[in-house]
Design brief:
The structure is a homodimer of 215-residue chains. Chain A is mostly helical. In chain A, 65% of the residues lie in helices and 0% in strands. The structure holds a DNA duplex (30 and 30 nucleotides).
Chain lengths: 215, 215
DNA sequence: CCTCAATGTAGACAGCGGAAACAATGTTGT
DNA sequence: ACAACATTGTTTCCGCTGTCTACATTGAGG
């Protein structure tokens, strides 16, 4: 690789040179990028390894060097989806105001928009067939939900939430938002209702988990 | 195979006669039955029209007379899934006690168990690609959710729930349960937590949507 | 009884995922 | 510098699938 592509390669960027030679150089990430586009545009069912190979300009068996089979590619997509979701949630929390209810609302809204903006990807992320690759996915999923569990713990520490297992309490909230987005992505309810429903869910959650002052 | 053929046939059930001649007689329902079994055992991805035809003992092109393509069969499965779900919810409500919170808990629990007992089917029901068959699915889905919306309205009438659009208020509850089951079906959380999480969700819902007496 | 629509069959086709053998290119030890 | 070696891409082949078309069998209604 020390002949002509030295400069671009040094920057860590995609070479993307037109006259490609025998070795692509970045086939794995090129496959993932193309797969993510195809996933968004045509859904996971229509995703074909041969299509991706054609689109990239490589032989149909080349992807096999990077993904053992089709499901391995889908697993990798799911994993990267959780990592991107984790980023999204982290930055939403970083930019959110200080008060607890605002942080809950902002993070939950960020999740909801990520889920509806990446409908096919979300479906993939939550239908990970239990495979050898699954542990990596579960780990990435854990990383995505970590900040949210922390948020619940902070709410409890500040007395805004009732005590109890943070995972159990928080899970119900995230399940709610996930369910809402699933129904929207499945065309069961109109997408315009998203923000309204999320607001309702957050309000119900805050009221339903407030510490009891006058029992 | 089955000894009670004549009796069941009288009830409008599947004849299922062994010595089949040129015409099967019930191929459509036989296909749906076999498909539902395959769906439960191997998932929707592994469902093959040719497999079903082989299993039933019919030529590989025969299913085409009853389902325009593979997706049409999946759509039919999704529709019948919603119809069965509607039955399940109706009978759960019929057997439930009179008080509102018990009715909410029982119906929601029935939904949750249906969803986890029919994981692959639920996935199918909620990922109906928008197709010509979709309206039928949406209609069946509406029929399933009808009794639940009614339940919310009754709760409001009895003063157990805050006023407001019943669909919006109830949707949040059902989205919560659906989200919980999705996470369980996707192995994100342990299945043993189902009842506990559902209880938590119902409790949060009832507390979060109670009318405000002392504002 | 005869026609006709419904239903099942047979055969063909292209596309796919996967496996194996082969070729070109980097990499590394000496 | 150069010879093994590992990595990555190619080619070829296989069985399977969904779908299409032409044909066969059957049952129902005039």
């Amino acid at each position: 690789m020390l002949s002509k592509e030295t400069l671009t390669a040094k920057l860590g960027a995609v070479p993307e040179a037109e006259p490609r030679s025998y070795h692509h150089g970045n086939l794995r990430t090129a496959l993932l990028d193309a797969a993510e586009r195809g996933l968004r545009e045509h859904g996971a069912d229509q995703l074909s390894l041969r299509d991706l190979a054609r689109e990239i300009g490589v032989s149909h068996a080349a992807p096999r060097r990077h993904f053992a089979d089709r499901q391995a590619l889908l697993d990798a997509l799911a994993e990267s989806g959780f990592l991107r979701l984790a980023d999204t949630l982290r930055s939403a929390l970083a930019e959110a105001a200080d008060d607890f209810s605002a942080r809950v609302r902002d993070s939950v809204t960020a999740y909801a928009h990520f889920a509806t903006d990446n409908a096919a990807l979300l479906e993939l992320m939550y239908t990970s067939k239990h495979r050898p690759e699954a542990p990596r996915i579960a780990e990435a999923a854990g990383a995505a939900f970590g900040p949210l569990i922390e948020l619940i713990e902070q709410g409890q520490a500040h007395g805004a939430l009732e005590p109890g297992d943070p995972e159990r309490i928080g899970l119900v909230l995230y399940a709610t938002v996930h369910g809402i987005t699933t129904m929207i992505n499945g065309d069961m309810i109109a997408g315009e209702l998203l923000d309204e429903l999320v607001e309702t869910a957050v309000a119900q959650f805050l009221r339903g988990t407030r510490p009891l002052r006058n029992p």
